[in-house]
Protein: Lysophospholipase-like protein 1
Organism: Jaculus jaculus
Amino acid sequence: MAAVRGSVHLPRCVVSPAGRHSASLIFLHGSGDSGKGLRMWIKQVLNQDLAFQHIKIIYPTAPSRPYTPMRGGVSNVWFDRLKISNDCPEHLESIDMMCQVLTGVINDEVNSGIKKNRILVGGFSMGGCMAMHLAYRNHQDVAGVFALSSFLNKASAVYQAIEKCGGVLPELFQCHGTADELVLHSWGEETNSTLKLLGVSTTFHSLPGVYHELSKIELEKLKSWILSKLPRETEKQNE
């Protein structure tokens, strides 16, 4: 596993903060996309970059691997899965390997002077699921987690990890389109309800008529939430 981790370097598309860098956000793309692709998609929807005065945004790209839902075709995916459904076992071997690789991205930020409680992780679709595994199973001290059009399988290892932990957990922000035909709105809702029952502080925004896509309204909501979790630090806080 260590050898695999050492051999994987994720390409990263970065939006640097306009001012002094005091927080970081790691935004994971959906299956078959790339960090650069996700950044461009967001730019298209918002008519501008998702950008902040003090927050660095990192869009990593998943490695290429055979992907079972594509009959073994090679795609940029964070992990493998038997099918796109919440009713099957997770492919934990690939999920765990990628948690190790993405820990390297978090560590790079920490080593550059950013505290763990000033780092947010999240993503779209598969990227949101990956972010929940990364934070709730491995990095429960990050500032928060967001998942857009995402879900966890019914018997997810995330639920098991949370049941075993007695500490304070990162807050979860979720958005999901009611017209999503690829990742059903009910799967996202069920994920949110289960995490809430397990003690996670959650927010869930249903987006009427939205398909499996990013919408301007959810990105605006996300932007407000990001700023509430990672406010600009005053000079006094830094002394």
User: Anything to note?
Assistant: The first strand starts at residue 12 and ends at 15. Residues 1-6, 235-239 have pLDDT under 50 and may be disordered. DSSP finds eight helices and nine strands in the chain. The radius of gyration is 17 Å.
